[in-house]
Amino acid sequence: MTTLNSELLIDSKILRENISYIKSKLENQTNFMSVIKSDAYGHNLELIIKDIDDISDGYGVVRIEEAIKIRKLSDKKILLMQGVYTDADYQLARENNLDIVVHNNDQFSLITKHNNFNNLWLKVNTGMNRLGLEIDEFENIYENFLKNINFTLMTHLSSSNDKKSKHNAKQFRLFEELVSKLHSNVSLSIANTGCIMNFPDKCFDWVRCGIGIYGGYLDDENLKTAMTLRSPIVNIRKIKAGEGVGYDARAVSKKEMKIASVYLGYADGLPVTIKDGTKVLINDELANVFGKVSMDLTTIDVTNLDCKVGDWCEFFSPRLSISNIAKSNDLISYFLMTSVKSRVKKIYKNIK
Ligand SMILES: *Cc1c(COP(=O)(O)O)cnc(C)c1O
């Protein structure tokens, strides 16, 4: 009998290789912040830290609970990207020596109330229109409170993956115009992964790199997908021409076929929208999804493959980039990585 467990294997050696490759794009003085929000994009925050701590200058997270967890594991800089909303948050952030993002006036009021301007990252809105102080709001704060304070000015790009997008040029221009009016000890940070890859001259003092570490940046083959999502074949059957496979009989055979069922479905985090023809890897050979993903199972066309029950079917892995499944299904790697559910067995391969 075969085990029914789907597995998520995480290879920390690949995380390190990806970081080294990304760092090769940076000037020496640029600091590397590993963004490990959302449980390190599904890679297990607590486990990855000890494998990347020596090559990270700091960490970026959104939730304060995650920041506190990291503080127990590392002495590096930790940026609390959600900032603080209450006195209790503020105290926790200071007790744990977190750097604090300020993205609106209410958050800055909390800072002035406690009258401590250390370790602040002021976020300005240059066109993302999601978070961040408007530029005039920031200028007001700067004039009144920050003229003699060392802090970091940050912004976030809306279109960093698209080198040609006019939004990038506009955001860079607004940011740099603002910077020219500030004192010279202000640290600067714009770059997420897409910006590092497409605009390496805009990396300034801190890059905030997430998806590239995990190998989910889709347009550079030097970055390898660090997680393997795989599931065993649990059934193989032959079908005749003209038969439907799976729900709604979405896939219909044109000829005699061999269909494998693997124990991975949307309840494991594989989107129900995955299309027929999406490539998977079985015994080092490519095969196609054939039929709608169900809650627990997915069906694969293995007509031309030599395979048996118990063989692994990989949906993405270092050998089959997550960009394959993302691009062919109009999905993003961020979503796929953070969608894998807890019932999938996670196996972490440490470097040592
Ligand atoms: C998530 C996040 C990043 C990292 O972005 P990637 O595209 O994953 O590199 C950087 N900065 C902020 C503010 C973020 O929220």
Indicate the radius of gyration in whole angstroms: 23 Å
Ligands (ions, cofactors included): pyridoxal-5'-phosphate
Strand content: 15-25%
DSSP E strands, number: 18
Order of helices and strands: EHEHHEHEHEHEHEHEHEHEEEEEEEEHHE
Largest sheet: 8 strands, parallel
Number of domains: 2
- The name of the CATH topology of the largest domain is TIM Barrel
Q: Which CATH class of the largest domain?
A: Alpha Beta
Assign the CATH superfamily of the largest domain.
Alanine racemase
CATH architecture term of the largest domain: Alpha-Beta Barrel
Helix/sheet category: alpha/beta
Oligomer: single chain
Q: What is the overall pLDDT average?
A: 97
Instruction: Indicate the low-confidence ranges by residue numbers.
Output: none
Distance between the termini: 33 Å
Can you tell me the overall shape? elongated
Question: What is the number of helices?
Answer: 12
- Order of strands, widest sheet: 8-7-6-5-4-3-2-9
Question: Helix fraction?
Answer: 25-40%
Domain Alanine racemase C-terminal: 226-349
Modified residues (N6-(pyridoxal phosphate)lysine): 37
Enzyme class: isomerase
Keywords: Isomerase, Pyridoxal phosphate
